[in-house]
Amino acid sequence: MTALPLPFFVYGTLRPGEANHDLFLRGRTRSEHPARLSGARLYDGPGYPYAVEERGGVVHGELVTALPEAYPELLAALDRLEEYAPGDARNLYERVRREVTLDADGSGVRAWVYVAAPTVAARLRAHGRPIESGDWFARR
């Protein structure tokens, strides 16, 4: 099944100013806009965060739209970065379609979001350290 060419919602090391933004996104995007994901909570990980789907939470990040010619390569590169393979029980993240809200005008946009895989999410809910602000930048 081919993935729909949706934008990506990024909330951690892929955000502007972070190392993975330069490595993976620079020169491959058409636009980047501040946005938020409702129904998820941010947890601190080993150098990167996890968004865990939970009612009442909000995660802050950017909505990134890839250049059409860069999309297939970028999708594959982000899947590798996030250690995501469809149906693999060892996934750290799952790539899911979710509605995100643009900060500028409140409009909703369907996007790919990498959220914590079920086993990782369960471990984080039980023993993880939430980032209360929902903003990876604010953790510092």
Automatic annotation (TrEMBL):
Domain of life per record: Bacteria
Gene3D superfamilies named among the record's database cross-references: Gamma-glutamyl cyclotransferase-like
InterPro entries xrefs: AIG2-like_dom, GGCT-like, GGCT-like_sf
Pfam family, one: GGACT
Name by which UniProt lists this protein: Uncharacterized protein
Taxonomic source organism: Streptomyces lincolnensis
